[in-house]
Design goal:
The complex is a heterodimer of chains A (618) and B (197). With 618 residues, chain A is an all-alpha fold. Chain A contains 20 helices and four strands. In chain A, helix 6 packs across helix 10 and helix 9 runs parallel beside helix 11. The radius of gyration of chain A is 25 Å and the shape is globular. The N and C termini of chain B lie far apart (58 Å). Chain B has a single domain, classed as Cytochrome c oxidase, subunit III, four-helix bundle (Four Helix Bundle (Hemerythrin (Met), subunit A), Up-down Bundle), CATH 1.20.120.80. Chain B is elongated and about 65 Å long. Chain B is an all-alpha fold. The chains are: A mainly alpha (618), B mainly alpha (197).
Amino acid sequence: MAILESGTEITQVHVQHDEHHEHEHHHEEGFISKYIFSQDHKMIARQFLITGVIWSFIGVLFSVIFRLQLAWPDESFPILETLLGKWAEGGKLAPNFYYALVTMHGTIMVFFVLTAGLSGTFSNLLIPLQIGARDMASPFLNMLSYWFFFLAGIIMLISLFISTGPADGGWTAYPPLSGLPQASPGSEFGMTLWLLSMAVFIVSSLLGGLNYITTILNMRTEGMTMMRMPLTIWAFFFTAVLGVLSFPVLLSGAILLLFDRHLGTSFYLSDIYIAGKPLTNAAGEILQGGSPILFQHLFWFLGHPEVYIVILPAMGMVSHVLATNSRKPIFGYSAMVMSILAITVLAFLVWAHHMFVSGMNPFIGSIFVLFTLLIAVPSAIKVFNWIGTIWRGNINFTPDTLFSIGFVSLFISGGLTGLYLGNSTLDIPLHDTYFVVAHFHIVMGLAAGFGLFVGVYHWFPKLFNGRQMNNTLGYIHFWITFIGSYCIFWPMHYLGMTGVPRRYFQFSNFETFDVYGDLNVFITLAAIMVFFAQFVFVINFVHSALYGKKMTSLNPLSSNSLEWTTPIEPGHGNWPGAIPKVYRGPYEYGRGGVDYVPQHLNDQQIWGEKGAPQEVAH
Amino acid sequence: MSTITLQKTQRIHPKKFALWLGLGTIIMMFAGLTSAFIVRRAAGNWVEFELPPTFLISTLLIALSSFTLVMALRAFKALNQVTYKRMLGLTLLLGIGFMITQYMAWLQLTGYGILLQGNPSGSFVYVISGLHAVHVLGGVVFMALFYVNALRKLDPVAALLQEINTERALPLELLATYWHFVGILWLYLLVFFYYFR
């Protein structure tokens, strides 16, 4: 176990190891190296998942608090004062803290929950298991990746408790609001901590991404060609590519912002007057020459790929689960791969569609409209193929299947409004309204969140030593979440179409928007309902992880992919013996009249002496 | 479809591959900064100035250091410990010299009245060359560790084991790749500054 660095070494080490002292490595691992500073990808996956789930409760709780404000702006909630202290004196939320909550909700959900919690968990768990590798290319960097994420979380957590409050300039941290400590209380130390936390998070995400790409390209088992990889792996691969190419640019933007905040440069600041006096630099000259739009370019060059970083892993897992649970080959495997590739390429060419109203040249805007609408093509191919996959399938309606179908539903609903917003002419009136909020929450937030549930319900036995989740609680969780989520976000389209702006603290002073008071109450009630439904999930999660029913066979789902060939409680190294070889793609369900055609058995073992049937069933 | 394809999955050493990917992230970071430079420059209100000639000296130093590192790697592979130590030490000195001359160039720039806090045209030069120097510093720290390692006397058995290790040169090769990369990166930045200032 000494060397777990490169693929060849691992194989050699383990073969010798298993021959001579079978259980030695179980004794070697102490508590700290097994549960805390673990280098086992499966344990790191668990760490990412549990940290992500904790963060998701914090992030969603924040949204419930600011939804209370939006629904009942004049009520006072004494519990808020108990919970938030001076930020809700007399039970009324302070306007500044409302912005802080919105900012933190966005940051936590996008980066900590949907990037680290989703992609971090399942890339770690599934990449080595599904490609047939003992561990990641560098287990040590993998461990560092988790601990940098943990550190980023701690810094962000600290920022929630400082006297000036956390960052409150929006999760996009646009200057000058984020660049000037004078702008708001949250732009003081809170913003500094936000930037530090993000810088550490970027390091975590890069270390993870480097590992995922290296592992997928270099450490696949014998016979596992690229086109035999499960679609989950393709999705994680392109997710990592997106992260590796786009996160460094955000880091550049954040570094320049730190210089502006602390060292007196003016990359983003220009001609700013505070209390009637122009802002000056250290030399006493008026600050000028900066451009706040520059930050938007740098931010959205990451920010847009980021939404695909969030959604691609969910897409991959949904594809895998739908094929497995419909007992049918995935419809159009190579079309699925190509559409992920197309989305990845286009992801880098569309960032300025977030900036249509920033005063950009309309001609440039029209180019970004074109690329943005092009993304509809691969997205539509994927939706068509998911429907084609379950069409006339022998579907097992387990919670993971339901969440997958829910994902497809949400992706269609949210994707269609993307066609509206991608057009610059339509975006100009819709920009910064609740229409945008509804769009990105459905297509990115909810859909990716459903992807997380798909992964947890489907691979729970692989995450927690062969224990299974309770299906009844899963159904209750699904139906409340699914219906409740639509109840939250569907009405927001209507609000947005009539021009209700996002990020407003209170609408009761605006005659035009005050008429939607009841609708806001409805949305908030739905949000509270969905929030409490998540406790059903977390109770199920914790209880099942500790006392859930154990799998009795290796492969209860009759899945074709390699992760189900590992023991019920796999040790570090995954397979006690040799790594299985791979003879075919992962989705050949029902081929030649055989329902279950796993990747690791050869033709004779499946079809007997006569070998594989000639026709490929589709 | 179902025949076993005995394909080799180890085309390149995973660590080398991961390093190249890592260099890709650094490229993206500086691509972000230099394109920010171009975008900002196109917006007008841009102070033009001469680059300090000290940048040319530092360029010479880092170019030389790449040559000495090539020789160090060659000597290491030929088991020529004396030349290896000498060349590695020289590279280390040149690397430190590069950072010192960069600092002198910033002082010179300040002497011209171009300040970090002034017009973004100057701020960009400080920040970009500063971030590059941080990357050089990373290389210098690792190189110093290699040098300390090379000074240590190994007992004969360990030395023999070292010599038969097929991946013996891997760490040094990784360092060399990184070092040449930061050198080329500086060359790019210098040409960029001259062309776009």
